[in-house]
Amino acid sequence: MEKCFDTVIISDLHLGAEISRAPDALEFLQSAVFRRLILLGDMFADLNFSRLTKDHWKFLGFIRKLSNPKRGVEVVWVEGNHDHGLAQIMSHLVGVRVYQEYAWTYRGKRHLAIHGHQFDSFSIRNFKVTRLGQLVFLWLQKIDSKSKRFARYLDRLNTRWLQLSQQVAQGALRHAKQSKVHRIFCGHTHVPMALERDGVEYYNSGAWVDSRCTYITIGRDGVAIDEYIPRRPERRDSNEPPAVPASEPEELLLPAV
Ligand SMILES: [Mn+2]
What we know:
The protein is 32% helix and 24% strand. By secondary structure, the chain is of the alpha/beta class.
């Protein structure tokens, strides 16, 4: 029998971006058994639905089915900086409740899930700079649509350059202490991570846009961060163009962190 987890967490799928790994995320969720699914923010690259491909809609369709009360699975959407403002739309379209942060108790331990951009002072102080960087990123992603290698490299570089990982981790640990929780879970940085300080645990779920797709499981054996290896023998690099090609740079919004 397959192991049933209490909770599975994924984040930063960036639906609508060409590098989104939506088919792999769908395949993973269909193969896993869990009682609660937390979509931990930045599931969308932006609010322009015309950029969603068939695969992206398929993923949303699955989430909608999964959230049917008959399935007995609680689906939770925690808002990220890219899908900020989606709460109303998503609750109607996908039937999922959207939270700024979501708290629950498991085996006597207090857990908290929050996207993590709240602890990213760089993106707050330098909004204009990051926005420009993200426009450049999107443009590069477009001209390099064949291999996507450069876009992925840039995504990693961007993350390192911002030194987000540490900053978000430290901010989250402080927030966990204030909120009196044992475990805190974030996304946003695209870098999977586990840390412990003064009895408080921090976990980052990574992302589903790069060559590594990672997820968190919480169950009887504790918390684990794992990489998902697609079952499909060869992953076609989704040559499918978006339903409506992106045109105006002004419309483009935030694919990376
Ligand atoms: Mn984010």
